[in-house]
């Protein structure tokens, strides 16, 4: 900054200083806990109770994790997740509300103004900061409030168990990545609409339309936890184009039917559902990170962070005109993993 410009800035600052008077800090108002030892004791007890709620929530989450296990049905999965979520919620809520109440009722609430200074503090400033922190600890009377201190330390020490126990218990579980190479699509499996499971005929799919597809299954199968998990890997987006717009290799010419093509809905970037179709360009967009795939050209990537085309589901029709799968997807669905070359 030139000397002239600096002079103008300084003049402007001086002018503002003359026009606006520094109001200073408002008069400090003491809280009930500052004036009444009984009120301070009540606040301490309330904070301890909140930390105790957190401790109970942590213990409950561990008990729930082992006692309420999913049994393969949607209802059991929902109940297990609900119980675990509520118990962890109480554990977090107890710590959070205790910290807020402690700060508002027991810690020093005197307003302090620090003048701006260079980023690098002087040794004197650092010593002063340590002294202020030490004084703050004294103001909070942590040493004398043994019950509060004990419940706080216990709550903070136990809470990581809500994450560590489920994580550790999963070690040694199912690490078979081969399951990612295949889905429940098999030769002859009918394509049905998602979510009602209605079989779909080729004649039902109009030009330019998009249909969300899942494999055909019985009512009993659709209610099982295993099928719900497998369905998540097998979801398909079906699109009907004008056959002359398709750019198909010789290998893939038999994978479509009269302009109808089927691709995995799971983005090859990080696995988000790809479902935004632009009819005029035949582009399919992933809403998470804007990866864009060309449905007319083998669902190849035309934009975005995805590196691989969407896997294609080879389809045809049966004797009744219903769309069926010729086989599973041409390659593993979803993002890359450590045993995949690409």
Task: Describe the overall structure.
The radius of gyration is 32 Å and the shape is elongated. The longest helix has 32 residues. Helix 3 packs antiparallel against helix 4, helix 3 packs parallel to helix 6 and helix 3 runs parallel beside helix 7. The chain is 41% helix and 11% strand. The strands form 3 sheets. Strands 1-2-3-4 form a 4-stranded antiparallel β-sheet. A 4-stranded antiparallel β-sheet has the order 5-6-7-8, with no helix packed on it. With 342 residues, the protein is α+β, with helices and mostly antiparallel strands. The chain folds into 2 domains: 162 residues; 147 residues, 3-layer Sandwich (Rieske Iron-sulfur Protein), CATH 2.102.10. It contains 9 helices and 10 strands.
Write the layout of secondary structure elements.
Blueprint: H1 3-19, H2 32-35, H3 37-67, H4 74-105, H5 123-140, H6 146-158, H7 161-170, E1 191-193, E2 210-215, H8 219-222, H9 225-234, E3 236-240, E4 260-264, E5 276-278, E6 283-285, E7 292-294, E8 300-303, E9 315-317, E10 323-325
Antiparallel strand pairs: 1-2, 2-3, 3-4, 5-6, 6-7, 7-8, 9-10
Task: List the keywords.
342 residues; alpha+beta; Rieske Iron-sulfur Protein; 2 domains; 4-stranded antiparallel β-sheet; elongated
Portion of residues in helices? 40-55%
Query: What is the tally of beta strands?
Result: 10
Show unreliable segments: none
Strand content: 5-15%
What integer is the average pLDDT? 85
Global shape: elongated
Can you list the strand order of the major beta sheet? 1-2-3-4
- The rounded Rg comes to 32 Å
Question: So how many helices?
Answer: 9
- Distance between the ends: 54 Å
How many domains, in number, for the residues? 2
Instruction: Report the order of strands and helices.
Output: HHHHHHHEEHHEEEEEEEE
Structural class: alpha+beta
What does the largest sheet look like? 4 strands, antiparallel
Subcellular location: Cell membrane
Domain Rieske: 233-324
InterPro entries: QcrA_N (IPR045603), Rieske_2Fe-2S (IPR017941), Rieske_2Fe-2S_sf (IPR036922), Rieske_Fe-S_prot (IPR014349)
Family: Belongs to the Rieske iron-sulfur protein family.
């Amino acid at each position: 900054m030139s000397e002239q410009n600096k002079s103008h800035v300084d003049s402007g600052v001086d002018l503002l200083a003359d026009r606006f008077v520094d109001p200073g800090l408002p008069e400090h108002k003491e809280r009930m806990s500052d004036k009444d030892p009984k009120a301070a004791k009540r606040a301490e007890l309330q904070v301890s109770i909140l930390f105790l709620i957190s401790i109970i929530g942590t213990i409950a989450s561990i008990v729930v994790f082992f006692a309420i296990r999913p049994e393969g049905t949607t209802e059991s999965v929902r109940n297990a997740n609900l119980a675990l979520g509520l118990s962890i919620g109480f554990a977090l809520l107890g710590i959070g509300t205790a910290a807020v109440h402690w700060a508002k009722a027991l810690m020093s609430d005197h307003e302090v103004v620090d003048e701006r200074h260079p980023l690098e503090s002087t040794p004197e400033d650092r010593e002063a900061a340590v002294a202020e922190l030490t004084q703050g600890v004294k103001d909070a009377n942590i040493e004398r409030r043994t019950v509060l201190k004990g419940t706080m330390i216990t709550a903070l020490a136990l809470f990581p168990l809500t994450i560590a126990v489920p994580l550790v218990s999963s070690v040694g579980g199912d690490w078979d990545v081969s399951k990612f190479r295949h889905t429940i699509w098999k030769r002859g499996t009918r394509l049905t609409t998602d979510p009602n499971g209605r079989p779909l005929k080729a004649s039902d799919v109009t030009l330019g339309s998009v249909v969300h597809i899942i494999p055909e299954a019985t009512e009993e199968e659709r209610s099982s936890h295993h099928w719900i998990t497998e369905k998540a890997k097998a979801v398909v987006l079906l699109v009907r184009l004008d056959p002359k717009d398709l750019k198909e290799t010789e290998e893939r010419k038999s994978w479509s039917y009269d302009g109808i093509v089927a691709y995995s809905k799971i983005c090859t970037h990080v696995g988000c559902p790809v479902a935004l179709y632009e009819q005029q360009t035949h582009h399919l967009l992933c809403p998470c990170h804007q990866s864009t795939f060309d449905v007319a050209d083998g669902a190849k990537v035309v934009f975005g962070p995805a590196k691989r085309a969407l896997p294609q589901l080879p389809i045809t029709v049966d004797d009744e005109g219903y769309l069926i799968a010729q086989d599973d997807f041409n390659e593993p669905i979803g993002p890359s993993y450590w045993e995949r070359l690409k």
